Amino acid sequence: MLGLVLGLGPMSHNPSGQPRLSLAKGSVAGLDPRVRCVVEASTSLDNWSTVGVAIIENSANRITADYTLPFDGVFMRLSVTMDP
């Protein structure tokens, strides 16, 4: 299913200096209302949550999110599910 959602590379510039995840959505996923995209963050790769994640754009074509909390190192990922 990720192949339907991912488009271009995951990194884009954020003028604030905070980490940003920005991904193009594939045309099928962008038009299917059952597809749910959630950006999560982790400082350990063990525990993931949406705390500190601010969605900047979640359109049919793109999802962009910034990490807004102070950080020494943070990882961000896209979680994709499909409702029945």
The global form is: globular
Which percent range describes the beta-strand content? Answer: 35-45%
SSE series: HEHEEEE
Q: Which strands sit side by side, in order, in the main sheet?
A: 1-4-3
Summarize the structure.
This protein is mainly beta. The protein has one domain (2-82). Helix content is 11%, strand content 39%.
Blueprint (SSEs and pairs):
Blueprint: H1 2-5, E1 20-24, H2 27-31, E2 35-42, E3 53-58, E4 62-67, E5 75-82
Antiparallel strand pairs: 1-4, 2-5, 3-4
Describe the structure.
The strands form two sheets. The protein has a three-stranded antiparallel sheet with strand order 1-4-3, with no helix packed on it. A two-stranded antiparallel sheet has the order 2-5. It is mainly beta and 84 residues long. The protein has one domain (2-82). It contains two helices and five strands. Mean pLDDT is 81; it is low at 1-11. Strand 3 and strand 4 (62-67) form a beta hairpin. 11% of the residues lie in helices and 39% in strands. The longest helix has 5 residues, at 27-31.
